[in-house]
Inverse folding.
């Protein structure tokens, strides 16, 4: 074996060994570090967004019976990149029984977008808000439309619609966006499909909780701030 | 103290990676909008710098020259992934704010630059000291940028400093100030050295 061949073989072996050790280390770390908690929560941001699209004195989150219902729908219809994250019910006097769906859809290179879609009693869209999107793919996920404010016009046009709202291109009215809205469109379509399967009478009765013990009480400041403009 | 240790220890100041070597400018400007982001990204980069220097220095005689760059990148990427796992598991708020920039630490010129220019040519202890010094230099620089921009944008309400253009302005001004101060210090040291030599003569 010539020296050049030996050197090449040595290079391949060393690089392979380093790679194997690194992969082993990462696999071990993956087992040690706890997975990030992605379960639905009434965190400050969600409550603020819920208040934006469907103001209420309090919300009921998809715990318990809801959770089972959402999971069963995801098992039948969802994928790793397209699923329902939560079903909320506005339980205040003004919007008693109003449903809001938090749906995740996939866009460019399976980057994900999370939207909140509030529904009227007849299951048409009342309002839509973008909760989050894969920032690593920024403009391909609608990031450019968020910063320019064009997404608000897209969501405004969706009010009153139901069923399949089309692809990203169908939503692009006046934005000039091409594929960047595919994630948003997928999420909304999935939310619409989900809401059609919801039989409101089958949902558990709303438990009226005193304000002090309801989850919303932690965000009383948000409610107070947003209350004026929604009343 | 041994001269090479002193040199490695003061590298973060006199060869500051941001203000003197002008490395890692992209994350410095992008994520120095406030102190929290700046400190978070600074320490994440410092962790990767110290441990990649350690491993690369320890393996410097084993890694063949032909494949040194891919080997360095694999090692650096491993530490970056570990940092990313840690941040997404324990610091979700920071993850939401600087998460997109964590994977980009792999291609931060400071890391690969120190691996190639220092760790691959020096022993483990000196390389770790260099990583610590350069890392602290980066943390200090990006934190100073973050504090300045936050003060200008939030206290003085000059909005441009919250944007990228403001980042470039602050970066330029701080770099100029830093180099002037280092220049003054160097001149004083030189004059002191010369007077000592004259006395001895």
């Amino acid at each position: 074996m010539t020296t050049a061949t030996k050197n090449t073989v040595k290079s391949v072996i060393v690089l392979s060994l380093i790679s194997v050790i690194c992969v082993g280390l990462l696999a071990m770390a993956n087992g040690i570090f706890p997975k990030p908690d992605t379960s639905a929560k009434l965190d400050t941001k969600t409550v603020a967004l819920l208040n934006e699209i469907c103001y209420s004195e309090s919300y009921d989150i998809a715990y318990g019976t809801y959770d089972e219902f959402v999971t069963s729908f995801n098992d039948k219809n969802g994928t790793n990149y397209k699923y329902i994250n939560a079903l909320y019910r506005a339980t205040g006097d003004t919007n008693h029984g109003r449903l809001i769906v938090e749906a995740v859809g996939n866009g460019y290179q399976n980057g994900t977008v999370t939207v909140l879609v509030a529904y009227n009693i007849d299951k048409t869209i009342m309002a839509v808000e973008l909760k989050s999107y894969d920032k690593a793919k920024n403009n391909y996920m609608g990031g450019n439309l968020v910063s320019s404010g064009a997404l608000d016009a897209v969501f405004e046009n969706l009010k009153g619609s139901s069923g399949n709202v089309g692809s990203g291109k169908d939503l692009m009215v006046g934005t000039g966006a091409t594929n960047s809205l595919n994630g948003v469109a997928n999420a909304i379509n999935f939310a619409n499909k989900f809401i059609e399967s919801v039989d409101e009478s089958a949902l558990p009765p709303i438990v009226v909780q005193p304000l002090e013990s309801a989850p919303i009480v932690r965000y009383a400041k948000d409610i107070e701030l947003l209350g004026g403009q929604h009343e | 103290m041994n001269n090479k240790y002193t040199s490695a220890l003061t590298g973060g100041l006199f060869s500051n990676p941001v203000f003197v070597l002008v490395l890692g400018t992209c994350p410095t400007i992008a994520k120095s909008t406030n102190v929290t982001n700046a400190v978070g990204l600074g320490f994440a980069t410092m962790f990767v710098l110290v441990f990649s220097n350690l491993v690369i220095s320890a393996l410097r005689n084993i890694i063949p020259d032909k494949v040194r760059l891919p080997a360095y990148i694999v090692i650096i990427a491993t530490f970056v992934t570990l940092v990313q796992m840690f941040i997404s598991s324990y610091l979700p708020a920071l993850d939401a704010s600087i998460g997109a920039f964590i994977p980009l630490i792999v291609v931060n010129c400071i890391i690969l630059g120190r691996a190639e220019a220092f760790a691959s040519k020096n022993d483990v202890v000196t390389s770790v000291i260099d990583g610590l010094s350069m890392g602290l230099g980066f943390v200090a620089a990006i934190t100073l940028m973050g504090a300045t921009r936050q003060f200008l944008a939030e206290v003085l309400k000059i909005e441009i400093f919250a944007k990228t253009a403001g980042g470039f302005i602050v970066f330029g001004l701080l770099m100029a100030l830093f180099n002037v101060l280092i220049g003054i210090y160097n001149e004083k040291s030189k004059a002191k050295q010369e007077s000592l030599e004259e006395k001895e003569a």
In short: The helical segments of chain A are 3-32, 44-53, 65-77, 143-148, 150-158, 182-197, 220-230. Residues 208-231 of chain A have pLDDT under 50 and may be disordered.
